[in-house]
Amino acid sequence: MRYTIKKSCQWAKSIIAVSNNTKLDLMRLYNVDSKKVQVIYEGCGSDKKQETRDKGSQTCLVSHVPCPEKYLLFIGRLEERKNIVNIINAFEILKEQYKIPHKLILAGKLGFGYKKIEDKIANSNYRQDIIRPGFR
């Protein structure tokens, strides 16, 4: 895996790191030029540009569908080993016990064991709040 990561870092035109620490690790472990790595923190907040837009005109980062005002986002292959069934379980607890208004966005390609995830979504009381925009 280290070989693959090293080669991927060499081939990439640019790299997104989730923290400065990750950027430093890439530089130290794989000799990546600091100019090649941009830190973009996970999650998002609102800024003045977003606040002035109509809510209906916003689009999700992962798709060209209308974006809910509040959402929880998973990006990755939708497969059993990613523990997505438990993400859905946690989402259901948040909806039931804490009455959160959020939607759950599951973005990514379908993978091994997706049938269990699909069944969990189909049987969820909150299936209308689970968005699967796919993979682009």
Can you tell me about this structure?
This protein is α/β, with parallel strands linked by helices and 136 residues long. It has two domains: 38 residues, no CATH class; 85 residues, no CATH class. The chain is 37% helix and 15% strand. The chain contains five helices and five strands; from the N terminus they run αβαβαβαβαβ. It has a three-stranded parallel sheet, with no helix packed on it. A two-stranded parallel sheet has the order 1-2. α5 links the parallel β4 and β5. The longest helix has 15 residues. The radius of gyration is 18 Å and the shape is elongated. About 7% of the residues have low confidence.
Brief sketch in words of this structure:
The protein has 136 residues and is of the alpha/beta class. It has helices at 2-11, 20-30, 48-52, 84-98, 114-122; strands at residues 15-17, 37-39, 71-75, 103-107, 130-134. The longest helix is centred in the last third of the chain and has 15 residues, at 84-98.
How many separate structural domains?
A: 2
Portion in strands: 15-25%
Order of the strands making up the biggest sheet: 3-4-5
**Whole-Å distance between the termini?**
25 Å
The number of distinct β-strands equals 5
Task: Return the string of H and E elements.
Answer: HEHEHEHEHE
What structural class should be given to the helix and strand makeup?
alpha/beta
- Rg, please? 18 Å
Helix content: 25-40%
Instruction: Please state the average pLDDT score.
Output: 85
Q: What is the 3D shape?
A: elongated
| Number of separate helices | 5
* Major β-sheet profile: 3 strands, parallel
The residue ranges in which pLDDT falls below 50 over 5 or more consecutive positions are 48-57
